[in-house]
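question for whoever is on the cluster today: can someone run the full assembly for these? two chains, 655 residues total. i dont have access anymore since they changed the login thing
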Amino acid sequence: MAMVKRVTRVMTPLALVLALLAAAMGPAMVARAQDGTPAANVAPYEAPENIGDLEGSITSDGSSTVGPITEAVAEEFSGLAENVEVSVDISGTGGGFERFCAGETDLQNASRPIAEDEIAACAEAGVEWFELEVAFDGLTIVVNEENDFLTCISTESLAAIWAPDSDITTFDQVNPEFPAEEIALYGPGTDSGTYDYFVETILGEDEAGETIDSRTDYTASEDDNVLVEGVGGDENGLGYFGFAYYTENEDSLNAVEVAQSADLSDCVAPSLETVRDGTYAPLSRPLYVYVTAESMERPEVQEFMRFYIANAGALSLDVGFVDAPAEDYAAAQAKVEAAISGEAEPDSATAGA
Amino acid sequence: MSAAVGEDLLAADAGGGRDQLRARQRRATAVSWVFLAAVVFAVVVLLVLLVAVAYRGVPSLSWSLLSSKASRNAESAGLQTALFGTLWVISLTAIIALPVGIGAAIYLEEYAPRNWWTRALQTNIANLAGVPSVVYGLLGLGIFANFFGFGRSIITGALTMALLILPVIIIASQEAIRAVPLSLRQGAYALGATPWQVSRHHVLPVAMPGILTGTILALSRAIGETAPLLVAGAAAYLTYNPDSLTDGFTALPIQIYNWTDRPQQEFKDLAAAGIIILLVVLIGMNAGAIYLRHRFSKKTRW
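^ ran it for u. tokens below:
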């Protein structure tokens, strides 16, 4: 990442020769960001000459999952625009949207798309917004490293285990070949966007169209490290959390492959590639940043968002997430530019209609 | 020898009395063991915590921890922003809470008439000292951040913290003022001093060591508080050090909490190092309290 900084810093004051050199380095940087996949269509960030003159403060709040990405972007951005103050709060996706839709914050970090009631709250307060996809995360199903029988699980079995009225308490109820050991379940608490995404994807909706809540007799924590400790220290542990927490703790955890068919014919293990290209379905999820249309009229926010999208791939890998596909970033770049020029209609205009 | 005499005396006593004495002595010994166990338990738990923190945190201690800002790279991450935030908030808290707290204590002890109104005030202050800190956070968010429009800023944090520790400061100061001998006041009044002169020149100087000790202990408590600051609006991450009252801020306990939440192992070690820094600041403040107390006590001339 030092490279991004160097590239942009070099470009700012110097003339054509260095600019050409930087342009040559730019694609190399992006290629690294995409972990080997060609990504020619994400334009590297080019800092305007006056970036040091930008002033103001940018406030953000929201998901503890996306927060670290925005922090990393803010850290790099502050190296370029020294007079722009960026703050990142972490109130959870839901808590953050409450402030965002009250017009208190410029940016909202979200680990799930904005919900119907939040769209309504924003509309009522007259807050218009743009939605930008910044990274991917793979919800990882984990078991203890000692567990060598549960290597792949179908979404159907997951739903059976986590259903609100589930009577599954032992592994042999999932598959008769498994030992009759009691399953110790771990998962995020209900305030977490990770929980929301999991139950929505795995359990779906009931007849009334309401999202089904999971069973409640599991060890819940908003702190993923508690879940890591729990499953890592419990031979019969089974839990789910973000991909980064698995990759940092591979020595005490095994990731379970996920199959969409009940006969386990299409098991896919979570990895950078399978999360990014979406084959790790359905638990690979996009992470978002929302920005208000009003804030997008301020030059420091405009520049921050340009910088954000251009570097989101590399920085999200840096903090343990998965970069989105290159074409998603290209689309986000186009959206940011259109929003800056005033041509784009805010996403809030078409949402929830 | 003496034991033998004791035995003789006991033997001379009625049999029932002797048994009673033995039973009481056994009970006394048992109780002393229980108390010893309580002390050992408290100290051992504290030691285990300190050793665990030191074991994980000491390798991560370095100057760059103090001199650099938060970062996604554990090697270059520091808590300068949080340290600045904590120092800003705590100094401001002291500036706000000290005069108000001592003033309230002087009023209650030296001026207030002994009636139901004073008793009601007194009871309320004692109750406020027991209110959970997160409630003060909500109060701060509602009143200072939203109603007065200070937003999520240092001034909001400091005012919230000041409210939180005011009851403790008032009660500690009252105790200190009450401990000043009545004869001192009577002497001054006899010479025609006004209540203010009595308080200013005679009561306060003598009560000062006690007041300061209570205040600094209250501030030490405030420095470790996370809940009210989280609620009243400390940020998790800032790119800048605060330099005015209306700036946003973050604080040491919040930075530590934020680090423990990261997936990477190195950040947990950094969190332990952060705890050591917080402990050093705390011990520093307590040492300051002891020093000030000592200084003021020496000044006291009867």
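summary bc i know u wont read the tokens: DSSP finds twelve helices and one strand in chain B. Chain B touches chain A at residues 69-72, 152, 233, 235-240, 247-248, 258, 260-265, 268 (CB under 8 Å).
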